[in-house]
Amino acid sequence: MASSASGEVKEEEEEKKLKQKQKQKQRRTKKESLGWIEWMRGWFNVIYEMLFQRIIASHLQNPLPLPPLSDLTCIVTGSTSGIGREIARQLAEAGAYVVMAVRNPKAASELIQKWQNEWAGMGLPLNIEVMELDLLSLESVARFAEEWNARLGPLHVLINNAGIFSIGEPQKFSKDGYEEHIQVNHLAPALLSVLLLPSLIRGSPSRIVNVNSIMHYVGFVDVEDMNCVSGKRKYSSLVGYTSSKLAEVMFSSVLHKRLPAESGISVLCVSPGIVHTNVARDLPKIVQAAYHLIPYFIFNAQEGSRSALFAATDPQVPEYCELLKADEWPVCAFLSQDCRPTNPSEEAHNVETSYQVWEKTLEMIGLPSDAVERLIEGEEVICRYGR
């Protein structure tokens, strides 16, 4: 009996050593970029969507019909222009209480006044509020979440819409020291989503909707260099944008898994399609000219808002999200520009990298690794950027 037991122990030790060697080998052969087949497939998806998105989404009405939403409280980031502006306006016109979380409160207040004047005589005044939020400052994000949570009211829908794509611009960093694309498109929305969990729990069933991009298909995340400063990859705004959007999908997928079903919070990403919005202001003049020459292929802001509005309001979305969780699907729900479920990129299915992105993101935004679990339990969590 003793020899048999010692034999089993030796086998276990050998198995552990073998696994350690395999892990070491994986680290040595760590993926440093997309394979050319993945890269080609990604660009095929991008081009295909641009050329055929209008045909694919031809079954959708514009604007998208919404049910009465008088019982919903919604926060929409980046809502003074483009897709966010359309999302906020249409939610408010459907009766929702909308909070415009924006960097320029004065512009948002002027916009609200304009909407109220246009809406006069069509029903009750629009229920909209403005709160200041600068995604280039993680302190501003933490302060926003603290002020909102202090109200002790419910939050039913958080729409992380704000984003940047500074095409052709040199690499820029926020005052927090992070590359601007990764901060605005990923780190700040991630921090906001986690810190607002107490309010989302009070609003259960609730949803976190991340406005993503088809461009994540050509993205790659180097977890050890999410800030793109090591020089291993030559920086370009395209690298910054695509990697930030892929990181958002990966983080959302892990958040989706870590939230227990009883929390009642659904997490999903949406692609608005190829949309002519203020993102184009960062494009070279010749590319902006091309935007105007091919209006048939490119959505306007109202058309681009449909997938986010559908994700925020359709009654079947929570059921679909829970079905993916029950099936242990490796990624969160992802809706395409035609408001139908689709698969994120092949790289987004990399579970190991997704968990590495999760851990690295929490470290970068100043939250403990068990922040989600503690917030779900009603415990207090200290953020490095909070008061």
TrEMBL record:
Q: Which domain of life is it from?
A: Eukaryota
> By its UniProt entry, which Pfam families does this protein fall under?
adh_short (PF00106)
Molecular function terms, GO-annotated: oxidoreductase activity
Q: Where is this region: Disordered?
A: 1-26
Q: Which UniProt keywords apply?
A: Oxidoreductase
Q: Which InterPro entries match?
A: SDR_fam
Family note: Belongs to the short-chain dehydrogenases/reductases (SDR) family.
Q: Which PANTHER family match?
A: DEHYDROGENASE_REDUCTASE SDR FAMILY MEMBER FEY, RETINOL DEHYDROGENASE
UniProt-recorded name of the protein: Retinol dehydrogenase 11
What organism is recorded for this protein?
A: Carya illinoinensis (Pecan)
